[in-house]
């Protein structure tokens, strides 16, 4: 039977700014099974990165988890003492960030930085840690790792630095790897190589993975399940096939229309999602996508939709899925009333 490695239940995270409480995560629930790779997708400000920082308990002031649970191997991480969290981070859950240059320390060699993580979490000698560091660099495809281990980060290319970050993250064989926009700063070829690397580690080592990105195209090859976030909430969740071929939420459909397709002819126009995400200082009472949705009905403005189950594992938060949705009475944003279609 598939075991849940991570289970996030009704998680809420806010930032307490001088302007007021920014409700960045407004009650999200999702899980990651052992050995599974899932993708969390959404525009910037959707709450996807805040979710991963909340899971890792790496939120900086003024951010705070205000409710919910993060169950990792059945234990709630939300109330874990800092010391215990430090042991879990790196050892059992590791994270790769977007910009390897700011994550790597420029004054230490890459080898030293990998060894430091290994020595912190494992009871082995320095020589053994060095051997392991070389092994890790080899695993992530760095040529001549015995020589490269003595290099400083600036002597590595952007792609190699990101590979080094993956090596650091995996050096303690974590059960869960969280990669937050790991390829955004890289060119397309290197991007594909890093994604292949993450996919390979997931399939070969069985490392459960959460891949966070704004780009649906990035998760297509790596993840088996996809969570689509918007306005601090999960809009839709389903298998890769369901999200790509049977999307049920207008926001997911909009994201799909905005990515280029290899098979389409060069004249096919990409359709951007017009408008901006909601202000989470004053989150809308109804559907967060209301202001940008072509199918918005009156009820969408007034009431946040519940989740509608399409089939096991596929759910979406949209009033269109309600049996009695008045789909021929769309909201008229110009006049502020109903327009019949
Ligand atoms: Fe659009 Fe209404 Fe569905 Fe929100 S609930 S996505 S506004 S149709």
| Average pLDDT for all residues | 89
The number of distinct helices, counting runs of at least 4 residues, comes to 12
User: Which fold name corresponds to the CATH topology of the domain at 4-230?
Assistant: Rossmann fold
Largest sheet strand order: 6-7-8-3-9-10-12-11
Q: Tell me, what is the CATH class of the domain at 4-230?
A: Alpha Beta
Ends apart, CA distance between termini: 48 Å
Query: Quick one: CATH superfamily of the domain at 4-230?
Result: P-loop containing nucleotide triphosphate hydrolases
Question: Helical residue percent?
Answer: 25-40%
Order of helices and strands: EEEHEEHEHHHHHEHEHEEHHHEEEE
CATH architecture of the domain at 4-230: 3-Layer(aba) Sandwich
Bound compounds: iron/sulfur cluster
Radius of gyration: 22 Å
What amount of the residues lies in strands?
25-35%
Describe the largest sheet: 8 strands, mixed
- Structure summary, number of beta strands: 14
Pick out the low-confidence regions.
none
Broad shape: globular
Question: Structural class, please?
Answer: alpha/beta
Describe what you observe in this structure.
The protein is an alpha/beta fold. The chain contains twelve helices and 14 strands. The chain has a domain of 227 residues: 3-Layer(aba) Sandwich (Rossmann fold), CATH 3.40.50. Helix content is 32%, strand content 26%. The strands form three sheets. Strands 6-7-8-3-9-10-12-11 form an eight-stranded mixed sheet, with helices on both faces. Strands 2-1-4-5 form a four-stranded antiparallel sheet, with helices on one face. It is globular and about 70 Å long. It binds iron/sulfur cluster. The site of iron/sulfur cluster (SF4) has 13 residues, from loops.
